[in-house]
Amino acid sequence: MTGRYGLSQLSGPVGTAQAISQAAKRNLPSLLMMTGFITVNLGIFNLLPLPALDGGRLLFLLLEVIRRKPISPKYEGYVHAAGLFLMLILMVTVTYQDIVRLIAK
Q1: For 1-50, what is each residue's pLDDT tens digit?
Q2: How large is the average pLDDT for residues 86-100?
Q3: What is the spatial distance between Cα 94 and Cα 8, in angstroms, rounded to a whole number?
Q4: What is the DSSP string of the chain?
Q5: pLDDT at position 1, please?
Q6: Which among 91, 73, 74 is positioned nearest to 15, based on CA atoms?
Q7: 0.90 exceeded by the pTM?
Q8: Is the C-alpha dihedral spanning 27, 30, 34, 35 positive or negative?
Q9: Mean pLDDT of all residues belonging to the chain
Q10: Angle, vertex CA 38, rays to CA 56 and CA 94, nearest 5
Q11: Alpha carbon 93 to chain centroid distance?
Q12: Of 51, 20, 52, which is closest to residue 37 (Cα–Cα)?
């Protein structure tokens, strides 16, 4: 978000599996720490106010409280579908980068 890190520095499922594998090879405390780190990060990410995440739903609920009337489920569905589509594109892109990085080694 700040431009400090590039897309090539993100890691998706393939990179995460590699990191977990490395942690498992070290020792059990390292593996447990990695598991806890991933769990906490996933929970925080899920609460970001982005469409298709729980934080996005909370944002819509907050807007309903402020407006004092419900937002049309039709429009909320469109916003969440667009958010999901964009997240899927990001996921495919990051996974592709992981695979390219794995092949380049």
Answers
A1: 577 877 777 888 888 898 899 999 999 999 999 999 999 999 999 999 98
A2: 91
A3: 8
A4: --SSS-GGG---HHHHHHHHHHHHHH-HHHHHHHHHHHHHHHHHHHTSS-TTSHHHHHHHHHHHHHHTSPPPHHHHHHHHHHHHHHHHHHHHHHHHHHHHHHHH-
A5: 59
A6: 91
A7: no
A8: positive
A9: 90
A10: 70
A11: 13
A12: 20
Could you tell me the two tokens for 94?
A: 């990051």
**Alpha-carbon gap, residue 21 to 16, rounded angstroms:** 8
* C-alpha closest to that of 79 among 42, 40, 39, 52: 52
Cβ within 8 Å of residue 90, ≥6 positions away: none
Residue 97 tokens, joined = 């980068």
Other beta carbons within 10 Å of 2: 4
Instruction: Return the structure tokens found at 34.
Output: 């990695």
Query: Residue type for 33, please?
Result: M
Helical pair 73-104 and 54-67, crossing angle rounded to 10 deg: 150
